[in-house]
Amino acid sequence: MKSKDNRSMVVERYTLTDRIAHTVHAIAMIVLIITGLKIYTGWDFMSFHTARGLHMIMVPFLLAVNWILIPYNIFSEGHGFLGKISHFTDHYIFGPKDATRMGGIIGNFFRKGRYPAFSIYDEEKGHYETKLHPLMKILIVLEGTAIFFIAVSGIVLYKLDWSLFGLPIGSWILSAGSLIAPVFDMTSLQFLRALHLLLTYWFVFELVIHVGILELDPHVWKYYKAIFWSGKEDLSDTHYSEVIEKYSRFDAKECKPKKH
Fold first, then answer.
1. Across-strand partners of 12?
2. Is residue 142 domain-resident?
3. What is the 3-state secondary structure (H, E, C) of the chain?
4. Which among 12, 250, 5, 2 is positioned nearest to 126, based on CA atoms?
5. Which of 30, 98, 146, 169 is the most exposed place for a label (fewest CB within 10 A)?
6. Span of the secretion signal (predicted)?
7. What confidence score (pLDDT) does residue 213 get?
């Protein structure tokens, strides 16, 4: 984008580690869904042992990305402790501004008003105020919760007496499951297996929402290029994006009528 004084406004939207995290996350999630459903349903496009092997290979990649790399990427942004907290809440927590944007999105669906920008870049501060569609901020919280529970339930499906550093993690999980399972007239293992499968279907549903609905729009394809390859965004394309120009604030102050 060229601003009023013809300066380029191609900016970095995603760092290299952001792109690595998203790419590995996407590959691991797709492989886990396919192999997990193969293991459960018995599809015959690959052997059980191959599916299980691929499944177990992808698990540490998914957990490392979500529990190490993504938190590192999030909290490496912003200056100082309060700046990092502010960055986290602005970019990943659904707030009042997101609720307003969500209202505008719903209104646009009923042909009332323009689809609001959800990618907002502050030129004066030199960084994004927000990058995500407001619905994605809700899905991120749900996804993080789902990843935790599918990992926990997956431990006992892998090995009932799994332990770490001598701690009987598998037994603890089975004991926790036994507190809830009787409500559904199940054993602890049956409940954890059902939970694991249900969360797999949740990830399929989320994939449809994330890719098939929110981003099945040619004007959003620029974000695919940014997150998988270039990391850059050209803000001259104003579909879903907005720039807060530092000069516009200065001009507004200059044009403000003086009191006599």
1. 232
2. yes
3. CECCCCCECEEECCCHHHHHHHHHHHHHHHHHHHHHHHHHHCCCCCCHHHHHHHHHHHHHHHHHHHHHHHHHHHHCCCCHHHHHHHHHHHHHCCCHHHHHHHHHHHHHHCCCCCCCCCEEEECCCCEEEECCCHHHHHHHHHHHHHHHHHHHHHHHHHCCCCCECCECHHHHHHHHHHHHHHHHCCCHHHHHHHHHHHHHHHHHHHHHHHHHHCCCCHHHHHHHHHHHHHCEEECCCCCCEEEECHHHHHHHHHHCCCCC
4. 12
5. 30
6. none
7. 65
* Structural domain containing residue 138: 134-158+169-213
> Beta-carbon neighbour count of residue 123 at 10 Å?
19
Confidence class of residue 215 from pLDDT cuts 50, 70 and 90?
low
Nearest to 235 by CA among 136, 131, 137: 131
Q: For residue range 153-206, list pLDDT tens digits in order.
A: 999 999 999 999 999 999 999 999 999 999 999 999 999 999 999 999 999 999
Residues 6+ apart with CB under 8 A from 104: 113, 114, 115, 116
Last residue within a domain, chosen from 76, 99, 123: 76
Q: Picking from 63-72, 144-153, 242-251, which range would have the lowest pLDDT averaged per residue?
A: 242-251
| Separation CA 68–CA 16 (nearest Å) | 15
pLDDT-based confidence at residue 254 (cuts at 50, 70, 90): very low
User: Does 72 map to a domain?
Assistant: yes
Cβ atoms of 154 and 52 within 8 Å: the answer is no
Kindly state whether residue 126 falls inside one of the protein's structural domains.
no
Please indicate, yes or no, if residue 143 is contained in any of the structural domains: yes
